[in-house]
Amino acid sequence: MKYKKMLSMNLQAYIILCITTAIWGGNSVAGKMAVGHVSPMTLTTSRWVIACLVLLVFAAPQVKRDMPAIAKNWLLLLGYGTVGFTAFNAFLYSALQYTSAINAVIEQAGIPMVIFLMNFALFRTAVSWAQIAGFTLTLFGVGLTASHGNPATLLSLQLNQGDALMMAAVLVYAGYTVALRWKPAIHWKSLIAVSAFGALLSSLPLLVWEIGQGNFIFPDTEGWMIVAYAGLLPSLVSQILYVRGVELIGPNRAGLFINTIPIFGMLLSILLIGETLETFHMIAMALVLVGIAVAERGRPKPAEAQAA
C-alpha cells in the first residue's frame, strides 16, 4: 500500500513538473510569437499588471501576515522583482526580436553554469572535477548555439544582437538566483507577490523609454492572448505547480526538471512557430544535457561540501 502511494506521488509530481517546465519553455516561444503583435516592454509591463491583480486576491492573507518582515526587507524584495522578473524578461523578449526561440531556450540552459561560477567566485562553494567537466560541456553547447554553429564568431565577438541580449538575460537571472540566499523567511506567496510588484514598478520606466523611442506596439488580438499567457501561466500557475512538485518529491529531485525547459521550448518552437531545427541545435542540446547530468551526478556530497 505504501509502495503504491509512493508511486502515485511520484507520477503526480512528474506530471506537475513537466507541465511547469513546458510553461516556462513556452515563455520564450510566446516572446517570439509576440514580434509584431506587442512590443517587448509593453509585454513585460502588461504581464506584471495581470500577475499583480491576481496576486492581490490570491496572496493577500500571506502578505498581510508577513508585513513586518516585508517592511524590513522591502528594498531586497523589490530588487528581486526588478532583476529576476523585469530585467530577465525585458532582455528575453528583446532578444527574441533578433534570434530564434530555439536559440533562446538552449542559451537559457547556461543559467545553472553561471550560478555555479558565481557561487564559487563569491562564496567559494565546494566544486568537484565532475562539475567542472559538466559545466564545460554546457558552455560549449551554449557557445555553439550563440554562434549559430560557427564558433569563430565568438572569437571575433560578432554575436547576433539577439544572442548577445540572451547572454545578458542569463547573467541577470543567475545573479537573481544567487541573491535568493538572502531572502527573508516569508511565505512563498508573499515573496512572489512583492517581487511581482517590484517587477511592475521597474518595468514602467522601460515602457516609457520604449514609447519615447517610437517602438511602442499596442497589443492586437494575438498580442493580448500572448500577454494573458505570460501574465497567468509563467508568472503564476507554473510557480504554484512547481511548489507542489517540490512538496511531493523534494527540491533536489524537482530541480532536475528545470533541465527539461530547453527540450520543451525547442519542441514548442518547431510545433507552434515552425522554426527549423538545425544540426548544431541538436549537438548543442546534447552537450548541454550531458553536461548538466555529469555536473549533477558529480556534485560534492553534503559532507564534502561542509569540509570544503
UniProtKB/TrEMBL annotation:
Transmembrane segments: 46-63, 75-96, 102-122, 129-147, 159-179, 191-211, 223-242, 254-273, 279-295
Superkingdom assignment: Bacteria
InterPro entries in alphabetical order: Diverse_Substrate_Transporter, EamA_dom, EmrE-like
A Pfam family matched in the record: EamA
Entry's localization field: Cell membrane
Residue ranges constituting the EamA domain according to the UniProt record: 13-145, 162-294
Transmembrane helix in keyword set: yes
Keyword Transmembrane helix: yes
Keywords: Cell membrane, Membrane, Transmembrane, Transmembrane helix
PANTHER family cross-referenced by the UniProt entry: INNER MEMBRANE PROTEIN YTFF (PTHR42920:SF11), OS03G0707200 PROTEIN-RELATED (PTHR42920)
Name this protein carries in UniProt: Drug/metabolite transporter (DMT)-like permease
